[in-house]
Write a structure and sequence with these properties.
Strand content of chain A: 15-25%
Strand order of the largest sheet of chain B: 1-2-3
Order of helices and strands of chain A: HEHHEHEHEHEHEHEEHEEHHEEHEEHEH
CATH class of chain B: Alpha Beta
Number of strands of chain A: 15
Radius of gyration of chain A: 22 Å
CATH architecture of chain B: Alpha-Beta Complex
Number of domains of chain A: 2
Largest interface: A-B, 28 and 27 residues
Oligomer: heterodimer
Largest sheet of chain B: 3 strands, antiparallel
Shape of chain B: globular
CATH architecture of the largest domain in chain A: 3-Layer(aba) Sandwich
Structural class of chain A: alpha/beta
Shape of chain A: globular
Strand order of the largest sheet of chain A: 2-8-7-6-5-3-4
Distance between the termini of chain A: 36 Å
CATH topology of chain B: Sufe protein. Chain: A
Structural class of chain B: alpha+beta
Largest sheet of chain A: 7 strands, mixed
Radius of gyration of chain B: 17 Å
Helix content of chain A: 25-40%
CATH superfamily of the largest domain in chain A: Type I PLP-dependent aspartate aminotransferase-like (Major domain)
Chain lengths: 420, 147
């Protein structure tokens, strides 16, 4: 991130991630190769500070939260609270309206159940987009089927973008209760105009939910400026651990909602026949929460904050521009999604004429290059694109141009194996 | 004692299939079957049919089978998939012709893997077995194979 073009990654950043000191495999036939990790959109690697923060918590501060009187339990409480403050501040949110969940999927399900069941009924519509991850489709399918509501989709154009005109037309029908969409598409990379879309929805009386799983790790996110009602994301894509996700919600909405999961920790008091709910955010955190994972996520956002999210975005945009330029050199390769890096998060999904995406991923793995192949949990979008699957390369803070060069060389070598 | 699910050091002592070089997976005959698959297309009329999806990748493979005297007289696959799944279907189609339905019902994963003749990793096993899953589904009605 020190180069003016934003495409370099200072050795210090990569050195922060211990996984890069290992090789990607190897055998008698092939020597071990350096790990070229281009699958951060699926899950990011973790810096030593995150690993150490979790280990240190478990080693020295471990106890359950929220009821221990002893000093050790208070340390655990303080660590969990501190993590929530860090996570909330990282995206311009408030601790009280920042709920820890298991992952982004659970965050979205929380809204679909706790808000959706009380606010969406027969004759209403839920509006989503063709570029959604299954996590932001299936909960709405289930809700709409259960409530007799309609599920409608905003279309994706040939550049992988949504149309604000179509959004206006859909909202003008007057039946849209909820607009749910990805901040950044996990297949196309498209960065959606969140603030504009949320403003239109608000004007039409619709609530908004944004899936920020791909956005939070790679660009500055300011909840207050975007004006959305619910924002869901996950820790493990943002250099944090698996097992912890986040839901930010508008306070009035969260306060009016019934709980999602019920049990310990989320109650104020329990009688034989009934119970009253705890205050926010605890009302939505039933059972022992992911304490060490939250501590790890706190360390992760501190780490990203230290790099500076503006610089992270500049780095990933520069690297994406370089990736688009280099991928264009491969004969028969077609990239889907926005044509330029300005409108695109740090990934490129592509097909190679004559080689199935699974074979593409297998072939480049021979050179130690890790990319994903398949439908990326977005089968409706795949159908819109007219492909069964794509290969996808995605970048993180630790990647640099040499990783892209390794991918392109491996793709060229793979074409030769297939006699292309 | 450090706990490690996956010991990076052990990679220096590879499993037998890892000793093979890259061309052992994408051998010439595999690529030949992939590029020019045998017995692909529709078969009308047909007596048996089935369609299966590989949920991991969204690939799909269907089969049409014509039966005469409890034997597969003719067979056609259709759909799309990777080199491993397409080559497996192509190679298997030539063996399946002439088999009795009873024989087909007894075919197992080892039969397919041996017939394919290449080292198949755990993740690609589903690709290699997709055609047999479809054929068994059409012949026996058991769509849960392999369990």
């Amino acid at each position: 991130m020190e180069t003016p073009s934003g495409t370099g990654c200072p050795p210090a950043v990569r050195a922060d991630f211990p996984i890069f000191s290992r090789s990607s495999g190897g055998s008698d036939a092939q020597p071990p190769r350096a790990l070229v990790y281009l699958d951060s959109a699926a899950s990011s690697q973790k810096p030593e500070v995150v690993i150490e923060a979790m280990a240190e918590h478990l080693r020295r501060h471990n106890a359950n939260v929220h009821r221990g009187v002893y000093a050790l339990a208070q340390e655990a409480d303080a660590a969990y609270d501190r993590a929530r403050e860090l996570v909330a501040a990282f995206v311009g949110g408030e601790p009280r309206t920042t709920i820890f969940t298991k992952n982004a999927t659970e965050s979205i399900n929380l809204v679909a159940y706790a808000w959706g069941r009380a606010n969406v009924s027969a004759g209403d519509a839920v509006l989503i987009t063709q570029m959604e991850h299954h996590a932001n489709i299936v909960p709405w399918q289930v809700l709409c089927r259960e409530r007799g509501a309609q599920l409608r989709y905003l279309e994706v154009d040939e550049h992988g973008e949504l149309s604000l005109d179509q959004l206006d037309a859909e909202l003008a029908r007057g039946d849209v209760k909820l607009l749910a969409f990805a901040h950044v598409s996990n297949v196309l990379g498209t960065i959606n105009p969140v603030a504009e879309m949320a403003a239109r929805a608000r004007a039409a009386g619709a609530v908004t939910l944004v899936d920020g799983a791909q956005a939070v790790p790679q660009m500055p996110v300011d909840l207050a400026a975007m004006g959305v009602d619910f924002y869901a994301w996950t820790g493990h894509k943002a250099v944090g651990p698996t097992g912890v996700g986040v839901l930010h919600g508008r306070r009035e909405l969260l306060e009016a909602m019934e709980p999602f999961l019920t049990g310990g920790d989320m109650i104020a008091s329990v009688d034989f026949q009934q119970a009253t709910w705890n205050e926010l955010p605890y009302k939505f955190e039933a059972g022992t929460p992911p304490i060490a994972e939250a501590v790890g996520l706190g360390a992760a956002v501190q780490y990203l904050e230290g790099l500076g999210m503006e610089r992270v975005r500049a780095h990933e945009q520069g690297l994406t521009a370089y990736m688009l330029e280099r991928l264009a050199e491969v004969p028969g390769l077609r990239v889907v999604g926005p044509p330029t890096a300005e409108r695109r998060g740090g990934l490129a999904s592509f097909t190679v004429e004559g080689i199935h995406p699974h074979d593409v991923a297998e072939l480049v793995d021979r050179a130690g290059v890790c990319i994903r192949a398949g439908h990326h949990c977005a089968q409706p979008l795949m159908r819109c694109l007219g492909v069964g699957a794509t290969a996808r390369a995605s970048v993180g803070v630790y990647n640099d141009q040499s990783d892209i060069d390794a991918l392109v060389s491996a793709l060229q070598a793979g074409r030769e194996v297939f006699g292309l | 004692m450090r706990y490690s699910v996956y010991d990076a050091g052990s990679r220096h002592y590879p499993l037998p299939h890892e000793l093979l070089s890259m061309d052992d997976l994408y051998r010439d005959y595999i690529l030949e079957h992939y590029k020019r698959p045998r017995n692909f297309g529709e078969l009308e009329p047909h007596d048996l049919e089935a369609l299966e999806h590989n949920p991991l990748c969204g690939d799909e493979l269907g089969v049409h089978i014509r039966v005469v005297n409890d034997r597969i007289e003719d067979i056609r696959f259709h759909g799309h998939g990777c080199a491993i799944s397409q080559a497996s279907a192509s190679i298997a189609s030539e063996e399946l012709k002439g088999m009795t339905l009873d024989e087909v019902g007894k075919l197992d994963a080892d039969w397919m893997i041996e017939l394919l003749g290449i080292p198949v990793s755990a993740t690609r096993r589903k690709c290699a077995l997709l055609n047999l899953k479809v054929v068994r589904g059409a012949v026996t009605g058991d769509h849960d194979w392999p369990a």
